[in-house]
Design brief:
The protein is mostly helical and 61 residues long. Helix content is 51%, strand content 0%. Helix 1 runs antiparallel to helix 2.
């Protein structure tokens, strides 16, 4: 999820510089909407699905 968030943020950030659309080609939705959804998904996973937390350096509490 983190990698997808970063891809969408970079596509949004570079869109005007490269004269690209600020919308995702596949869904037609804004890249920022995809990034926001990913952030909410990460928030949910860190609170309720800790077994999926695969960040480097993570330890079980």
């Amino acid at each position: 999820v983190f990698a997808a968030i970063m891809r969408h943020l970079w596509k949004f950030w570079r869109a005007k510089q490269l004269s690209l659309s600020e919308n995702d080609d596949e869904s037609g939705l804004p890249h920022l909407a995809h990034a926001a959804w990913g952030c909410f998904a990460l928030l949910h996973y860190t609170k309720f699905k800790t077994e999926y937390d695969d960040r480097p350096g993570r330890t079980d509490d």
